[in-house]
Amino acid sequence: MNSDIFKELLLKQGIELSARQQEQFRTYYHQLIVANEKTNLTRITEEDEVYLKHFYDSLTPIIKFREIISNAESLCDVGAGAGFPSVPIKIIYPDIKLTIIDSLGKRLTFLDKLVKQLGLDNITLVHSRAEDAGRNIKLRENFDVVTARAVARMSVLSEYCLPLVKVGGYFVALKGPKLSDELFEAQNALTILGGQIEKTCEFTLPDSMDDRTLVAVKKIKKVSNKYPRQAGIPNRKPL
């Protein structure tokens, strides 16, 4: 998938890229490859794979859950790595207020330089573990949408992400295939943390064998002050 095919496929999904947005994605690809030579940001470096498995994949929440993303004024991305899915979403919706949380400073250094080169504003970068961010009064229950892409199992992700979501907002997880067992396993955590699965969507990325699952979890009540637990505990002892 090159830049032109990327544009055509998005147009079929009702997303029309402007010339500026196309250039932003080209710049993103170039800066990712340059930075990746010094900092291990991604193992995916071929242009066609970056456009498919990073850029297009990051935009699937817009394609599949458009009403959730388009109505959001604020979005927080937990464990964004090289900026996926939040920076591609920000390119499409430049007015959304974006916060990116990551525990590795080298990733945030890359993202700080990247968003300036892309001409994106209203972005806050937070160097923090997700568990610590969820206890930060400036971040806790402060976002319309919180995203996470293949960071951990749903039971763990829920404790990372739901404390950051406003009541009435959504946690959107970008996951791989065959998620039924993982979702069943996460039910206890979702109940404790005030989340309710509203939508799931299984699909295959275009012209590939790569299966994906999107999960939209609605926040229906506030989270107890007991959660998230201290850093490292959610992963070692999932709810």
Automatic annotation (TrEMBL):
SUPFAM superfamilies: S-adenosyl-L-methionine-dependent methyltransferases (SSF53335)
EC assignment: 2.1.1.-
Gene Ontology molecular function: rRNA (guanine-N7-)-methyltransferase activity
A Pfam family of this chain: GidB
Keywords from the named record: Cytoplasm, Methyltransferase, rRNA processing, S-adenosyl-L-methionine, Transferase
Gene Ontology cellular component annotations, sorted alphabetically: cytosol
Subcellular location: Cytoplasm
Binding site for S-adenosyl-L-methionine: 79, 84, 130-131, 149
Family statement drawn from the similarity comment of this UniProt entry: Belongs to the methyltransferase superfamily. RNA methyltransferase RsmG family.
Function according to Swiss-Prot or TrEMBL: Specifically methylates the N7 position of a guanine in 16S rRNA.
Name of this protein: Ribosomal RNA small subunit methyltransferase G
Taxonomic lineage: Bacteria, Bacillati, Bacillota, Bacilli, Lactobacillales
